[in-house]
């Protein structure tokens, strides 16, 4: 579908006429809605929606859509954002020593499973430089110690600005990102190698093995100051048995990690994820 | 949620303004939409939607909703139906000798997993009469032979009319229902004990065993004249191995059959299934 | 298979010749092995095996098998037990107010999915008496309060002895069984309505909803003094989304609970579960 | 585990004493069994087993193991093969235009998920040469037309011999390999992009879309003269919905294909797959 589209993500207090008002705005300006999805959280009294329409034939010029919609959104007390499908987001992938998620995300981007640019890889280890170079991606090696963390986070932030990064993907980056950093750059997706909230923190596969679970999982979530506690975007699981050693859990887990992380990144880039409180609505 | 709702299921040729027109109709009459979901089949040029709103505070009396909406639907060339959540549908369950789906459906209805009455069980065998009686459901034993099939189908149809049945559930009814019968009473959900279109027809578990598959499945679909070829509502699968004999496949399959059939019945009763061509849209 | 079998479950320090010694014992006495499975836990230096052979044609009379095998087992420092397939175990099902696991276990026992007798249901509520009576099972109502727990556990223990119970199944029994009780009667399988170790303790579905997980699970495990921490026998999961309210999680969870509990009970009754440390080997 | 092992795969008519005889052979020569698994197909009267033991401390020199075991196997009428874990098998990967399985297999081999060499890629298209070269693997471009097929298969066979290939992996090779070729080189694993036996033949995703299935799958099997009918090694599935276009099925299917094919290749290389009739026993 080369026809560019606009997507509105809206959340506001539930009330009569919301669907009508939003749909009328698009119809009145000649837009053709191709996807519309909504959800009502009755307990929270919250209405959440995602509407996507074709820009061809839409009478409002792009730069006027936001101000025009704002006139509708403000009386509804709505939080909202608009995205255009032909604006290509820029991703920085952060890794440590493991390469499976890095390879996978690059392969998917090359295969156009999602539309984004990947101009930058940041790592606290030097060894994946060769992978980044293989695909002509800049690689910034920023080792982290107890003493230099603050300083390195300042450099990381500067890199994100210089490279005009929209999204950071922690693709098995085995360092804790500070709450301070996240406050400054909140668009961060992390993959945790367990079925959260089981095995929060370090060495989940070892602990899964010790607990003798029969299923392991992986969880992609937005990073928050509270470690492994951010809004969950996607999870998946795989069956294990007593025959699986820790190294088998690691191997099986890698297949989960790359698929779960890739799905979460794709959903995010297609503007299908709406966060409220510590939860996500995923408009699939 | 004891507040009764109305649900519109609509399919029509895709065009601008559909969401706006339908949402306006409900808003103009004071309705509060609680669920709205849509799908566009671009290849077929078809727009499909399900909209549910609360009847409390809706200004149109029930009997006027259909004619009023028809005035909107006709120029759009729309096929549509309306259902009210407090109209309790009546189900006839058809069985042969196996009781697992029968027990399961009755248990779920008692547990209010779906809202329906089950006044009638029809069978070509006498042995499940005791189950029906245990739950105070009428049991009609109509044995089928090559010679009496036409005659018995006439009786079955009469029973459905007498009992004011809205939906027939073939809960492991091991007889072929004629195309003629289905033409007269098309609201029939069947459970087939394979992952269709694999193993159409008789003895799917035996054939799955012979083929050496590593996963087996079950499929719930609307019955059509073409055996096991009707629109699929729901499917699920379970892993098997060389250790599983045919009888293990049958046992594992039963767990699938009852869950898949129950999900399909529930989705149908909640007016979440829209059939077009030989496909379904399931608005979950 | 009406031919009765004997099953040995053995664990011992790993060493050369174990398979040969055990297989020779059976072969020398004319036994025909129909299933043999083994597992080595290299970290623990432990060899675990399950061997099942036909008793027809076996030259040792039943009462001599245990002493004869003991002569082999003792020098190997082995822990072992022997079971005969035609010894029918007796189960007490413990419930509170929910009936889905109770119904399901009774149905499976009637359908011969596992071979056992169910002579007794114990509950801290009176309301499922009608279900037990429907299937001619004795129902003992033993309400639990803070003050009478010790006293009631004494009665429960007495009932288990009087009814010659081999296995207690906690089929959504919403009371904590004391460590003291478990020490006296350790053969207890519990179903926990979460994907352990996530959501240990009370109200797992509410907490899963609050955490915004995308998958929920159920866990069958042996009861231990440490709540929800016993050796896991079986787990399974189902996908949920933002559309699922807590009540949907409960409904979907029930389907998991009954299947996971039934699988665990069946595996236990077929002597396929070997516990060591806090882990299980499940010889499927 | 750097300690090399020997693995026996045996199938023979079921009879008393098989486990004892085989275990005694290994024990008598000082071997330490680390894995033993067996299966009896009662219908076929067939006993199948896989036994793996450490070579360190085994008294028979490697070249004498086969003749020595043959003396035991012949009276049992057994088919058997022996493999040594430190003999590194050589794989040729055959591809057409899609690169996902090729990338994935190479990545897994580099990550040591299985132990093998990949010296050769054969393709009927030139475009993946760049991938092979990236990893220093020879790439042979052999375009296939109606007229040159026989000739090209002769060249393919010659290449397999020159490169001393043990296993061919058809990693989305979209050409039919002739029965004649397979007769000459039977060690071929294929990935079919459907849940066989559903959608045998061409364009399974298009046909799955048309049929409106709710789950799609992938199947890894040994190639046989009868297309898509060979013994199944591994299958897996993923859920789809009406929202998924054919291109989404293709995308989701790719994730299945690479995981299912990789699992099958790994199981084969670890000598865990025993074929009999058109079925496999997979000793996991």
From TrEMBL, chains A, B, C, D:
The lineage of its organism: Bacteria, Bacillati, Cyanobacteriota, Cyanophyceae, Nostocales. Keywords: Hydrolase, One-carbon metabolism, Purine biosynthesis. The active site is at 228. InterPro entries: ACT-like_dom_sf (IPR045865), ACT_dom (IPR002912), Formyl-FH4-Hydrolase_C (IPR041729), Formyl_transf_N (IPR002376), Formyl_transf_N_sf (IPR036477), PurU (IPR004810), PurU_ACT (IPR044074). Pathway: Purine metabolism; IMP biosynthesis via de novo pathway; formate from 10-formyl-5,6,7,8-tetrahydrofolate: step 1/1. Its EC number is 3.5.1.10. GO terms for molecular function: formyltetrahydrofolate deformylase activity. PANTHER family: FORMYLTETRAHYDROFOLATE DEFORMYLASE, FORMYLTETRAHYDROFOLATE DEFORMYLASE 2, MITOCHONDRIAL. Belongs to the PurU family. HAMAP family: PurU (MF_01927). The keyword Transport does not apply. Residues 7-90 form the ACT domain. It comes from Komarekiella delphini-convector SJRDD-AB1. Catalyzes the hydrolysis of 10-formyltetrahydrofolate (formyl-FH4) to formate and tetrahydrofolate (FH4). This is Formyltetrahydrofolate deformylase.
């Amino acid at each position: 579908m080369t026809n560019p589209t606009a997507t509105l993500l809206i959340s506001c207090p539930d009330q009569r006429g919301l669907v009508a008002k939003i749909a009328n705005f698009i119809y009145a300006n000649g837009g053709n809605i191709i996807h519309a999805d909504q959800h009502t959280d009755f307990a929270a009294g919250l209405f959440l929606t995602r509407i996507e329409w074709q820009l061809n034939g839409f009478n409002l010029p792009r730069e006027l859509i936001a101000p025009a919609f704002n006139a509708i959104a403000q009386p509804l007390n709505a939080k909202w954002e608009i995205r255009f499908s032909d604006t290509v987001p820029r991703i920085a992938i952060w890794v440590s020593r493991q390469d499976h998620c890095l390879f996978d995300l690059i392969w998917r981007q090359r295969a156009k499973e999602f539309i984004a640019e990947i101009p930058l890889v940041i790592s606290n280890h030097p060894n994946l430089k060769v992978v980044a170079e293989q695909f002509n991606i800049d690689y910034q090696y920023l080792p982290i110690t107890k003493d230099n963390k603050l300083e390195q986070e300042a450099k990381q932030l500067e890199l994100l600005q210089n490279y005009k990064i929209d999204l950071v993907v922690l693709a098995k980056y085995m360092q804790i990102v500070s709450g301070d950093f996240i406050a400054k750059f909140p668009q961060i997706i992390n993959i945790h190698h367990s079925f959260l909230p089981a095995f929060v923190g370090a060495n989940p596969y070892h602990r899964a093995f010790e607990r003798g679970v029969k299923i392991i999982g992986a969880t992609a979530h937005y990073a928050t100051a509270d470690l492994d506690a951010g809004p969950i975007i996607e999870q998946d699981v795989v069956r294990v048995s007593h025959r699986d050693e820790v190294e088998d859990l690691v191997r099986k887990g890698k297949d989960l990690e790359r698929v779960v992380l890739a799905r979460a990144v794709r959903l995010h880039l297609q503007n299908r994820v709406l966060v409220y409180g510590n939860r996500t609505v995923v408009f699939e």
